[in-house]
Amino acid sequence: MTTALITGASAGLGEGFARALAAEGTTLILTARRVDRLESLATELRAAHGVTVHVFAADLADPDGPTTLIAAIAAAALPVDVLINNAGFGARGISRTSTARFSLG
């Protein structure tokens, strides 16, 4: 059985990835800041597809967020076969005028 960890799963593309993988029978680990949305999505996917869905609320923008999430997943003894690292933010504007804080380095 394949298990996928999807970050940013409470809305948008993350939610779409969760729906698509659930339809294929993939076990899901969903994470985002909004636990109420995650729980609602998990309940819906379990009922519609009979899949196992684990929910972990995490703010991955927090410096301790990724470490805390990894520890929680490990403590639950869950494997991660696929990572869809969808959590993040976007910056608007022309890239040549964007500030350095939005640059990769």
Protein traits:
105 residues; alpha/beta; four-stranded parallel β-sheet
Structure report:
- The chain is globular, with a radius of gyration of 15 Å.
- It contains three helices and four strands, in the order βαβαβαβ.
- Helix content is 36%, strand content 19%.
- The termini are far apart.
- Strands 3-2-1-4 form a four-stranded parallel sheet, sandwiched between helices.
- β1 (3-7), α1 and β2 form a beta-alpha-beta unit.
- The model has no long low-confidence stretch (mean pLDDT 89).
- The protein is of the alpha/beta class and 105 residues long.
Which regions have little confidence, pLDDT < 50, spanning 5+ residues? none
Structural class: alpha/beta
**Contiguous helical run count:** 3
Instruction: State the major sheet.
Output: 4 strands, parallel
Helical content stands at: 25-40%
Number of strands: 4
Run of helices and strands: EHEHEHE
Described by the principal axes of the CA atoms, the overall outline is globular
Global mean pLDDT: 89
Strand content: 15-25%
Strand order of the largest sheet: 3-2-1-4
Radius of gyration: 15 Å
**Whole-Å distance between the termini?**
37 Å
